[in-house]
């Protein structure tokens, strides 16, 4: 007969009977499971809400879930902020949605995707001014950060998105200034030229023509600046006249006043012309006195 002691398994001795430094509770396990469900786009069964009180209770519960989630993983998981903000948007609570986006950007302001999704939310609901404000901030902060690390192409890509999503004189001028700051005169000029092509009549404003002409003056391209002012004479005659005065071109100024008086006999134009004739002509800019 076999010895019964030989059939029993050997007892495993526990060397360290002290409790582990880090304890895992059942509550924590449940919370982790909920996080996994949220991150994997788990779809819970549809909840039928019958009155305003139930809706308020549901929203309160959902917000508590999101707040717990962003508190735990929001610093290294931008996706949870996007889901939270999107949910608030779905509730049509845009004030809360903006608050969530702003909190996310306070942590990850370099994240281009967050800025883009934030602006897209505003555009979806036709909050154009809000969207413009988001992009204005983005193109003020992002390129500055990228340039600090010599990442010019990434900064340029940010401006490209900006002018495509919210095309405006202000957006294109900012883009051109960015290129000038990097010494890219040709690319800055191309920004102004693209603005003329893409904005059409909407871009033919006094502000735009003045900025474009001033750019050419800074680039020491006087003839280019003159051509812009000449083209924009109907919009900015005073700026064109001031430009020619700065260049010391008395006869050109007289010609411009004559052309202007052919269009209007307004007393202000006559007074301006008279003051010009009475005053000495300043030396052209750039010349020593």
TrEMBL record:
PANTHER family: CROOKED NECK-LIKE PROTEIN 1, PRE-MRNA SPLICING FACTOR. This is Pre-mRNA-splicing factor Syf1-like N-terminal HAT-repeats domain-containing protein. GO terms for cellular component: post-mRNA release spliceosomal complex; precatalytic spliceosome; Prp19 complex; U2-type catalytic step 2 spliceosome. InterPro entries: HAT, HAT_Syf1-like_N, Syf1-like, TPR-like_helical_dom_sf. Residues 1-24 are annotated as: Disordered. SMART domains: HAT (SM00386). Pfam families: HAT_Syf1_CNRKL1_N. GO terms for biological process: spliceosomal complex assembly. The lineage of its organism: Eukaryota, Viridiplantae, Chlorophyta, core chlorophytes, Chlorophyceae. Residues 75-234 form the Pre-mRNA-splicing factor Syf1-like N-terminal HAT-repeats domain. Transmembrane segments: none annotated. It is found in: Nucleus. The keyword Repeat applies. Belongs to the crooked-neck family. Keywords: mRNA processing, mRNA splicing, Nucleus, Repeat, Spliceosome.
